[in-house]
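Predicting holo structure, magnesium ion bound.
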Amino acid sequence: MSERKQAEEITGLLAAIVASSDDAIISKNLDGIITSWNKSAERIFGYTPEESIGQNITLIIPPQRLAEESDILSRIRRGDRVDHFQTVRMRKDGGLLDVSLTISPVRDSSGRVIGASKVARDITSQKQVERALRESEQRFRVITDASPVLVWMSGTDKLCYYFNKGWLDFVGRTLEQESGNGWAENVHPEDFERCLQIYVANFDARRPFEMEYRMRHRTGQYRWILDRGVPRYAPDGTFEGYVGGCLDIHDQKEAAEKVRIADDMTRLMKAQDEERRRIARELHDCAGQTLAVLGMSLAQLVRRAEGIAPELAREGKAIEEMVQQLHREIRTTSYLLHPPLLDESGLSSALNLYVDGLAERSYVAITLDVDANVGRLPSDMELAIFRLVQECLTNIHRHSGSKTAHIRVAREGESVRTEVRDHGKGISPERLLEIQSHAAGVGIRGIRERIRQFHGEMKMESNGSGTSVIVSIPIPKEVRSADSQPLQAAV
Ligand SMILES: Nc1ncnc2c1ncn2[C@@H]1O[C@H](COP(=O)(O)OP(=O)(O)OP(=O)(O)O)[C@@H](O)[C@H]1O
Ligand SMILES: [Mg+2]
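Done. Tokens:
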């Protein structure tokens, strides 16, 4: 093959490559005049070769970027290449395109630069994706910063590199302090090991996870946090790390804990009531009966001894009295443990009996006023009121130094109101606050818990001239309507 033919073939091949390229391939001379224009240039910029060849390259440069051209030309003249220069060019219809330009000097056979070849790639869609990504990241930040959730993000190396405003505000630290493993400094030392294990194990398995731990708030207080983490994947499925959202669940957790303690206490009190009732019955039925028989037998024995041995009879009489006293004491204890009358005759009778018994044994003058309209209440409600009066009277006896106590139970609308009042030395405001925040004895707390069960409320008022405990318990609907039934029937 002749050299010429070979050269022609190579030129033809190159021309075919240029024509079929997806990129715009344009050549120009050192004055910037376009000397060739391939098919893709026509497709991308909208000018035909006839419209562009012979024109200045400024044809496709937006006016505000004209300065770029003289810079490019001077670099080409020096024999330099311009690589992957990202800029904007203009289509025939005036539309702007994001392009990546690679411009190389073209030399003649003697090596002199005579022009430039320019490969322009349309990167508009790539730019759009980048922009969309940037915008979506921006949006993500705006949203997470506005949300009450504490957000973190980690990379494939397990290290955290992003924390939202909520997180940073919570811990009162900077992104730099938190980044990497910095966040671990805020986790409660007792929770840290467990959390790290959960994180690492799930991270390696690419599994979502959930964990609760205490994190130091900017005030220094450790607060309970619920943290949920999920793996993040790029659209093409590559794993990118984790993103997590945390909620401050401290208050809920504390409230739940309080409810749990209160429920435990209620259960305990119920069990205690049951136990008291059982012991009371046992004392009354077994020890009480035995003592009654013992008393009678002793009385008989004494009567028989009177004729035979008056000395013995006298001693026997003394023993008989002791047995009777023991019998009375056991009955009192039994009935204090669980007033038998409460179940049978109701609150009013049981309270009357109790108050009489107490008045005999203490120096407190007690007045009791139970309104007739109170009627019978559910038995556990009557027991609750009985116990609260019992506790208040015990407190008056133990703490108040009062010589009098007044009890009033009355119906008030759809509730029963019970007030126990004394004229003792009262409770100081600080102590009252302590008692109300549950930091005092079991007695008042017990009352409060019993009342809570019935959705009632309790108020304690106290000053230098005495104390009042006022409790109001709503009467259940069934009981209220049962009450009114006979009345309606009578009309
Ligand atoms: N009527 C009262 N007058 C003066 N102080 C009272 C009166 N009632 C209660 N208090 C004060 O309130 C505190 C709490 O009473 P609470 O019944 O809860 O406990 P407690 O009587 O000390 O012990 P317990 O658990 O045996 O009942 C008492 O220690 C006492 O200081
Ligand atoms: Mg008490």
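Residues 484-491 have pLDDT under 50 and may be disordered.
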